[in-house]
């Protein structure tokens, strides 16, 4: 401190190395002592405090850190930071804990617990990021994404459903209809309760399926609900008086008046649907020009049991065809058979009576089936890691390297060998896909990018790899689904879709058809 020129009448004099003496009191050079009221956990200002403060002249006072052994009592020696509780550790101010919902994500004590743990980037912990949304500090991301003809939907971890695409028939389930497609996930599917009548979230969904302009879902309690177009009775309400249902409505009864009871699974396509009931029988309803509902009536307005079918564990439907997978590992089909779609070794008229699909060779039945996928008028079955298909094949959808229809199952071929290592299959109108080692592979029609191999137009009778925008193969994929004129798969939990996108059904923010897999946009939160 430069004291030259100060009036000597003030009584100040310079004392080397000690500081300044005035009226018998010495003041040390360095940081001014901090005054704290007695009884507030601090210490009085005075010579001792001054010496302690001077001793820490070189200490860092950035944020909450006080170095050189300066931290003795965190409450008094650490600079407060919101949402943070400090402690003294080796003379330093260290974070002891964070207020619930906050975290120290930059590992810097001086900034404290600086980040909330309830957003997409950090959900519940600093290291947890979400693809879509964070709710109550847990990721609420899609667990399944299903494409339809003109829209798509995802089932989220909290068992709600979000949809996007065309909503002209109320198939997004938002309680409205709109001629303008939604190009990204919107809202939460609503439902109408029976008593009292009102609209609320569709909750506890465990499985769902999309038709052309409608959808159906099954809840954990076995309740089945449908919404969207109803011009052929697709929503199973027993009437055509209301052509579109804008919110999900419970399907309550069978044809004949009996209560439908718990439902374990539902499958929809085009304009009809089928469900597996609690007693392992199957009931179908809707459009029935090819007897795909298993009845002589057309349309069928209430779910009607398919005669002679029991022991069913899953069901699949196409545009003109329906099939069931039994607990015995057999596949039974009914509906159109113009191209051998029923897999009985014959072609001919449609049949409303289910019969078993025959084996690849010999006179026995196809057996040991683990998974079933049904397209328009073709179907496929997974036998362990291999796949067999039968029916229409004008676009190579059977995957046997030809475009010849087959009346009985043939193996999907990968070059000269059978396709192997398959863990999941999916099928839709004139194309099929399989998951092999985390890579989706598709074959069949490709006029709208259904195969996602980077090309448009040319059909492929053998499996091709699904690629992303840069041409590399989609890898680390799971949860494969096909529907309408496209497909979807999850890559490390993030949904990717491809194919026809005229209604925004790929969910990627525009209406451009995609010949490669593109991420579905996160939804705009309601």
- Give start-end ranges of low-pLDDT stretches: 1-63
Mean of residue pLDDT? 88
Class derived from helix and strand content: mainly beta
Shape: globular
Rg of Cα set: 34 Å
Helical fraction: under 10%
Number of strands: 41
Tell me the distance between the termini: 63 Å
* Count, helices: 2
What's the structural blueprint in terms of helices and strands?
Blueprint: E1 13-15, E2 19-22, E3 25-27, H1 47-55, H2 74-77, E4 84-89, E5 92-98, E6 102-103, E7 115-116, E8 134-135, E9 138-139, E10 142-147, E11 151-156, E12 161-167, E13 178-186, E14 190-193, E15 198-201, E16 205-210, E17 214-219, E18 224-229, E19 244-250, E20 263-269, E21 272-277, E22 282-286, E23 300-305, E24 312-317, E25 321-326, E26 331-335, E27 351-356, E28 371-374, E29 378-383, E30 386-391, E31 406-411, E32 413-414, E33 417-418, E34 422-428, E35 431-436, E36 439-444, E37 460-465, E38 477-483, E39 486-491, E40 494-499, E41 514-519
Antiparallel strand pairs: 1-2, 2-3, 4-5, 6-7, 8-9, 10-11, 11-12, 12-13, 14-15, 16-17, 17-18, 18-19, 20-21, 21-22, 22-23, 24-25, 25-26, 26-27, 28-29, 29-30, 30-31, 32-33, 34-35, 35-36, 36-37, 38-39, 39-40, 40-41
